[in-house]
Design goal:
It is a single chain. The protein starts with a helix and ends with a helix. Helix 1 crosses helix 3 and helix 8 packs across helix 10. It is of the alpha+beta class and 426 residues long.
Length: 426
């Protein structure tokens, strides 16, 4: 299999630069799906582009999900054909609600030679090697950033561009033997609703990969187990001038509860690797009622439940300080560690690692300190691992991606298609 990296680089870069200039920011708490109309602009564009490339079965449903097929090149009488499963590749089009994605002005830094990258739209935004050590591995690469006034959108438009470029390459090269390939593009991943209405049966893949990782070579089969805890303190409102012995201030109860939450070793800012955390991220209320939303994260279900039990115990202790106070702790399930499912299908990860090697990289295995659409898809009947897309500093105005790393992602997709044809569902 012969790749022309320069041709692929031009193609994937051109697509990426177009996609990032379309504002697809999703919105927390929206009742509609997708959460913002503007995501549909890019999704419609992708559907049209897939049709123009010659992909089959291109659809876009009422929820915005775009699906398409790259038909198998193995002839039906090939002895391998009957044992090659349908493989899927997915990426999400939305960008984080945390930083604006409107009016992105991408900057291409050709032949990066090291040192700081000062973003021209806001010189206070500086990409430094000491803060992003992966940059030191990209000497000679073409680095793409925003101008510093917005995020870039590499999460996950790098993955979108890579899948589209791989589709184009496979359709141009029918001599590459592979089974049926399905691709999909989804909205609202950044607000945790990316596959709320995803039709796994319609997608039709037996195994899949999200192109939503970071460093070149990453093969990820493990995410957090994730829940959201909603802690509600209830007090009693009385005119403050006549409140002695009567008023119960739920804000003070909430403050006491937050002060009791362990910080060292159990907050995002003090944990790394396989450590989980408790992260209060929304606080709303007044005297009568205060609500705290808390992200609960751990790599095991047992660890997740231990943290939730701790929240219940601390909340009860604080409420007991005043018998007139009330408290309620509700836990909402978000997703579970994909590893519980992928361990039952080891070839999904093994073939991905082989594809990475064929692309000239060393596989990197590390747990994801977050989640992907794939984590939920695993529990919807579609075992899905996560592969690198090449972006860094996600959800930040200092976000960046290497064009050469995107090329390696395209190569990995193509090699994966061929490996599944070679080995089948062993």
């Amino acid at each position: 299999m012969i790749f022309d990296p320069e041709d692929i680089a031009r193609e994937v870069e051109e697509r990426f630069l177009i996609y990032v200039q379309i504002d697809t920011q999703s919105q927390e708490g929206a009742e509609r799906y997708p959460s913002t109309e503007k995501q549909l602009v890019l999704l419609r564009m992708l559907a049209d582009e897939l049709r123009a490339l010659g992909a089959a079965d291109v659809t876009m449903d009422e929820y915005g999900y775009v699906m398409a097929t790259v038909p198998a090149t193995l002839p039906p009488d090939d002895p391998r054909a009957g044992r090659v499963p349908v493989i899927g590749f997915l990426a999400h089009v939305d960008t984080s609600p945390e930083v604006s994605g409107a009016g992105v002005k991408p900057q291409v830094w050709r032949n990066y030679q090291g040192g700081e990258i000062v973003l021209p739209g806001d010189p206070q935004q500086v990409i430094r090697v000491e803060e992003t050590p992966e940059l030191a591995q990209c000497i000679g690469h073409d680095i793409i950033t925003s101008d510093g006034t917005t995020l870039l959108g590499a999460d996950d438009k790098a993955g979108v561009a890579e899948i589209m470029t791989a589709v184009a390459y496979l359709l141009r090269h029918p001599e590459i033997p592979h089974g049926t390939i399905r691709v999909a593009f989804t909205p609202d991943e950044e607000v945790g609703r990316g596959v709320d209405f995803f039709d796994v049966a319609k997608f039709g893949a037996r195994y899949a990969y999200t192109m939503d990782g970071s460093t070149a070579g990453e093969v990820e089969d493990e995410t957090f187990c994730a829940d959201t805890a909603v802690v509600t303190f209830r007090g009693r409102a009385v005119h403050p001038g006549y409140a002695k012995g009567k008023l119960v201030n739920s804000i003070r109860l909430a403050a006491e509860f937050l002060a009791r939450l362990p910080r060292e070793g159990m907050s995002p800012e003090t944990t790394e690797g396989r450590q989980g955390y408790l992260h209060p991220y929304v606080l709303q209320g007044g005297v009568e009622q205060t609500v705290i939303r808390i992200l609960v994260r751990d790599f095991t279900i047992e660890g997740l439940h231990e943290k939730e039990d701790l929240l219940r115990r601390l909340a009860a202790e604080v409420a007991a300080l005043d018998p007139r106070a009330g408290v309620e702790v509700q836990v909402q399930e978000s997703y579970r560690n994909m590893k519980y499912i992928l361990d039952q299908h080891p070839q999904v990860v093994a073939y991905a690692e082989e594809a990475v090697r064929r692309a000239g990289l060393q596989p990197i295995r590390r747990p994801i300190r977050g989640g992907t659409d794939g984590a939920r898809l695993c529990y919807m009947g579609l075992p899905t691992a996560n592969l690198f897309a090449g972006g860094h500093n996600f959800h930040s105005r200092r976000e960046w991606v290497s064009v050469q790393d995107m090329v390696k992602a395209v190569e990995t997709i193509v090699h994966l298609a061929a490996i599944w044809a070679e080995k089948g569902a062993e």
